[in-house]
Design a protein that fits this description.
Blueprint: H1 14-30, H2 39-52, H3 74-87, H4 89-108, H5 111-123, E1 128-131, E2 147-151, E3 154-165, E4 172-178, E5 188-194, E6 200-205, E7 214-225, E8 229-230, H6 236-272, E9 274-275, E10 278-279, H7 284-312, H8 318-343, H9 353-360, H10 371-386
Parallel strand pairs: 1-4
Antiparallel strand pairs: 2-3, 3-7, 4-5, 5-8, 6-7, 9-10
Helix pairs in contact: 1-3, 2-4, 3-4, 3-6, 4-5, 4-6, 6-7, 6-8, 6-9, 7-8, 8-9, 8-10
The structure holds flavin-adenine dinucleotide (FAD).
Length: about 375
């Protein structure tokens, strides 16, 4: 049984311990690391199941619209992501995307927009997606080219978005496009685009090392009524950053979940694997590896839940969330690599838990701000504070 004593840390309240315990029991019954090959079907089913069981209510804000509370509780979404990632990467993905894909509506939607979309996101009846990146605008997202030209009361979208998670299975996309009120970041607006809107096309499905639904979207004369715009014209970039601000710490939590599972798997193998008249765990080289893995897990957990707690106190977390994301994703990669090493040939054998963790972790060091971008954010905050 994995060590769960960290739940006694002062970052958590009794409701968090209850949530983690209940989800752990649910995950034990409903999830396993291996799943079918049809990730579209698996994902749709996971979203339904997570919705029916009430977990997605934590991913949206507003009790009137299906949420458990009026603001998203960062510690809760982090505990949920950590627990799901420890049990099944695709389940974590399904949960995270319902939150990321609908957060702009939770944060900036009108009552009508919130009433139309959030209850269905929370129940798992509608699948959400967040469409920010473009082929020529990833880290430098303010340079996006996809345009939203005003035409009477409508906007007309032209251009592309790529690496869009849930692309192809989403029921709606929150799309960020250049509406031109000002140059750069101040000339971007956000729109809710239903998947069946004429002019929106899934131009390409993208395969990645840990498969999940991912696509390139193409907009050609895609007409969006003003009622589907989120916030005011020109506020899109701010809305995107506020969305990432909520969810960045939860990426650290997902990485932490993968790392915890790798530590559990590594420990189990070290204790079981017979060699040289003893077991793998008898050797000091193994013990050094296990010590480093456990310390990396705890330091990631401390940074992750510090950032989550601080955000829930209403304090700014730009620096803390960036530290958590950078350390948790980078050290999870090392912890998982060490677990693969402990498992030897089995560690790289398809179908083994550590083999799937090795593939699952990689993209987390890239999306929602790559590690280098987090370094720049941390340094900028330090230099600003020192100025
Ligand atoms: C699996 C997956 C899922 C994704 N899901 C979504 C989604 O749902 N919605 C969405 O909008 N996007 C999504 N993305 C896109 C993701 O956000 C981008 O991949 C990410 O922002 C990086 O952009 P890029 O791939 O263009 O890399 P680039 O921006 O080209 O970066 C390449 C390298 O340059 C580094 N770099 C950047 N700036 C600097 C600098 N100033 N100095 C030094 N090095 C630097 C980066 O850290 C990186 O290592 C997803 C990506 C992946 C892989």
């Amino acid at each position: 049984m994995a060590d769960r004593s960290y739940l006694d840390w002062p970052f958590f309240e009794p409701r968090h311990r209850e949530l983690a315990g209940a989800l752990e029991a649910w995950a034990g019954q409903h999830l396993s690391q291996s799943h079918g090959q049809d990730v579209d079907a698996e994902c749709r089913a996971l979203v339904r199941r997570l919705g029916q069981s009430g977990w997605l209510r934590h991913a949206v804000a507003g009790t009137a619209h299906g949420g458990v509370a009026d603001v998203i509780d960062t510690r809760s979404i982090c505990l949920i992501r950590e627990t799901l990632a420890r049990n099944q990467g695709l389940a974590d993905f399904a949960f995270a995307m319902q939150g990321l894909g609908s957060a702009a509506i939770s944060l900036a939607g009108t009552d009508a927009q919130r009433a139309r979309y959030l209850p269905r996101v929370a129940s798992g009846e509608a699948i959400a997606a967040f469409a920010l990146s473009e082929p020529e605008a990833g880290s430098d997202v303010a340079s996006m080219a996809c345009s939203a030209r005003a035409d009477g009361a409508d906007h007309v979208l032209e251009g592309e978005k790529t690496w869009i998670s849930n692309g192809g299975i989403a029921d709606f996309y929150v799309v960020f496009a250049r509406s031109g009120e000002a140059p750069g970041a101040r000339g971007i607006s956000a729109f809710i685009v239903d998947a069946d809107t004429p002019g929106l096309e899934i131009a390409e499905r993208i395969g990645v090392i840990a498969p999940h639904p991912l696509a390139r979207l193409k907009f050609t004369g895609c007409r969006i009524p003003i009622s589907q715009r989120l916030g005011e014209a020109g506020e899109g970039f701010k809305i995107a950053m506020r969305t990432l601000d909520v969810f960045r710490t939860s990426v650290a939590a997902a990485a932490l979940g993968f790392a915890r599972r790798a530590l559990d798997e590594g420990l189990a193998r070290a204790k079981d694997r017979k060699m040289f008249g003893g077991v793998l765990a008898d050797f000091q080289l193994t013990q050094a590896k296990l010590a480093q893995m456990a310390t990396a897990v705890d330091s990631s957990a401390l940074l992750t839940y510090r950032a989550a707690w601080q955000r829930d106190q209403g304090q700014p977390v730009t620096r803390e969330a960036a530290m958590a994301k950078m350390v948790a994703t980078e050290s999870a990669q090392q912890v998982i690599d060490a677990a693969v090493q402990l498992w030897g040939g089995l560690g790289v054998t398809q179908g083994q838990v550590v083999e799937s963790l090795y593939r699952e972790i990689r993209a987390l060091r890239i999306y929602e701000g790559a590690t280098e971008v987090q370094q720049l954010i941390i340094a900028r905050e330090l230099l600003k504070a020192g100025a």
